[in-house]
From TrEMBL:
Presence of the UniProt keyword Membrane in the record: yes
Pfam families to which the protein is assigned, alphabetical: GGDEF (PF00990)
Domain of life (superkingdom): Bacteria
Residue span, GGDEF domain: 91-218
Keywords: Membrane, Transmembrane, Transmembrane helix
Name of protein: GGDEF domain-containing protein
InterPro entries per record: Diguanylate_Cyclase, GGDEF_dom, Nucleotide_cyclase, Rev_trsase/Diguanyl_cyclase
Transmembrane segments: 7-28, 34-51
GO molecular function: diguanylate cyclase activity
Length: 222
């Protein structure tokens, strides 16, 4: 949780107290009353509480309540800032779209509580598999999104493979197999691609990859 609200509130309380001190010294020509000094800790406490409520509201407005990942609203809001940073550093942006392959089957065969457990476990693996600078979000339902700065294709493929392996190793309960499909998209060098377009490309690549895997699994053994 960030501290913007608390820092701002404490700063505001300091400004108000300073105003009263300056008012008594310079305009009234006397010492501030003792009650003002005694009231300052209470004022500080009230402003700190107000700042904390603001920070909590901001935090939960940016997070998915089930997985505690960033939510769709937050990613959509900050994507332009990510593009601006990438533009200044002359780099590109990658987007990964991750989908749980058998999520509907898990929900139908077991229950929604088990489905929620699977989503939380996938979320944990995605955070463990990525860098601190990458943004991991729950995009909706059983879909997740990762946004980060692109270095090269080799590094991106390593990340994708790490995600596939870590999610494939999730142990929920006996008989429950968890696997995910991943689609990727990389912005052009001119950073003209918006988030909607990159997600569309990643989605197409994800379902293309899923179709190839399904065809391979259906092939008869040699």
């Amino acid at each position: 949780m960030k501290y913007y609200g608390r820092i701002s509130s404490i700063g505001l309380s300091f400004v108000i107290q300073s105003f009263y001190v300056i008012y008594f010294y310079h305009f009234l020509g006397k010492q501030p009353e003792l009650v003002l000094w005694c009231a300052y800790p209470a004022l500080l406490g009230v402003f700190y509480w107000m700042g904390r409520q603001y920070d909590k509201a901001t935090y939960y407005s940016e997070r998915d309540p089930l997985t505690n990942l960033y939510n769709r609203r937050f990613i959509s809001h900050v994507f332009d800032k990510i593009q601006a940073i990438a533009s200044r550093s002359n780099s590109q942006i990658f987007v990964l779209l991750i989908d749980c392959d058998n999520f509907k089957q898990i929900n139908d065969q077991y229950n929604h509580h088990m489905g929620d457990t699977v989503l939380r476990q996938i979320s944990r693996m995605l955070v463990m598999s990525t860098r601190k600078s990458d943004l991991v979000a729950r995009w909706g339902g059983d879909e997740f999104l990762i946004v980060g700065h692109y270095k090269d294709d080799e590094g991106l493929q390593v990340l994708i493979q790490r995600i596939l392996e870590s999610c494939g190793n999730i142990q929920i309960a006996k008989g429950i197999r968890v696997s995910v499909s991943v689609g990727s998209a990389v912005s052009t060098s001119h950073l003209q691609d918006d988030l909607t377009y990159l997600i569309k490309i990643a989605d197409e690549n994800m379902y293309g990859s899923k179709s190839r895997i399904e065809k391979t699994e259906k092939l008869p053994p040699k």
